Structure prediction request, 306 residues.
Amino acid sequence: MSVDFFVSFVQVFGLPKSIGQIYGLLFVSAEPLPMDDIVSQLGISKGSASQGLALLKSLGAVTSQTIPADRREHFEADLNVSRIVTHFFENRLQPRLEHGDRRLEEMMELARTAKREKKGDGAAAVLTRIQALQKWQKRGRNLIPMVVRWLKR
Amino acid sequence: MSVDFFVSFVQVFGLPKSIGQIYGLLFVSAEPLPMDDIVSQLGISKGSASQGLALLKSLGAVTSQTIPADRREHFEADLNVSRIVTHFFENRLQPRLEHGDRRLEEMMELARTAKREKKGDGAAAVLTRIQALQKWQKRGRNLIPMVVRWLKR
DNA sequence: AACTTCGTTCAAATCAAAATGAACAAACCG
DNA sequence: CGGTTTGTTCATTTTGATTTGAACGAAGTT
Prediction:
């Protein structure tokens, strides 16, 4: 099917398959579609469609339009693919890296105590390793805004 | 626990929890550990440990050492964290992007036929969208080697 | 050769994420 | 109002990924 491309794309970013299917269908469709078309064309449930569209709207990846003489919401793909990617970086990666900071600090503390108590050379080596990790952590955090900026133009 | 940091880290890259636990334990341990220590300290099964270590070795993220008068393999974390990240980019992202090329081409073909048949302006618009996608695809493929290079120093 | 220790493999169990669909709420229409 | 259409919610089911542990093989020891 022609939405396969989108399915595999969103999955790289940890989003469920149905999101890819819906976005793909809308991307490829010449005019905006109501929810029941999405349900019937993709063969997914009303629930999935509703939830999927809600997420895609929240990402700004689809928008809804009003069509004259039709009460139903009609959905359209926003061509701005970068929103999905940006969402991944900012909502999935960024928070984890930040949470990681605190935990690294805790590890550091543990290692320092261990070193003081055991005075082993091994413990000192561990301390050095953790410091190296912290550098990496910082490096990663710097990379993200760079990538996001690059994707945005 | 102090390996939490690593668990959450590897999960960003779609690797199982046990991988993070094992790598974390080795990272934090002052000297190389045999498999049964890993099993008992983390409370995971022999199977998990064996499989996890095999994967980590294949990534080059851990190495094994021989310790005199001990038959068992002893494992040590390779500090080179970038291997895990590089592995993610090269084995998980890259192939998908490449496979995507072919599927995009198929979509393009479908869209061209649709345009010829229906001659609708909608169909032409779809064609344009897909072309835009192809640009993005190329852009993404260029980004990866950049990131990898940046991470490697 | 029989026995132990170390490690791998793989079918089955477990667990978590996603999809389903029935029940519900809101908007519209006669 | 009663009836219909549209869309959301959420408890249950399904599905896929991870983990387990029993069985096995390889190597070492007596």
Notes: Residues 82-151 of chain B form one domain.
